[in-house]
Amino acid sequence: MRFLVIGGTRFVGRHIVAAALAAGHDVTLFHRGKTGTGLFPEADHRTGDRDGDLAGLADGSWDATVDTCAYLPGQVHALADALDQRGGRYALVSSVSAYAAPAAPGFGADSPLVELADPGVTEVTPETYGGLKVLCERAATLRFGAGTLIVRPTYVVGPDDYTWRFPWWATRMARGGDVLAPSPGEDPAQIIDVRDLASWVVSLVRRQVGGAFHAVGPSQPWTWRAELTEVAAAVGPPGTTLTWVDEEFLLAQGLADGSLPLWSGGQPGRLVLTADPDAALAAGLRLRPLAETVRDTLEWATRELATGQSPPPGTGLDPVRETELLARWSARKP
Question: Residues 17-21: what's their mean pLDDT?
Answer without folding.
Answer: 98
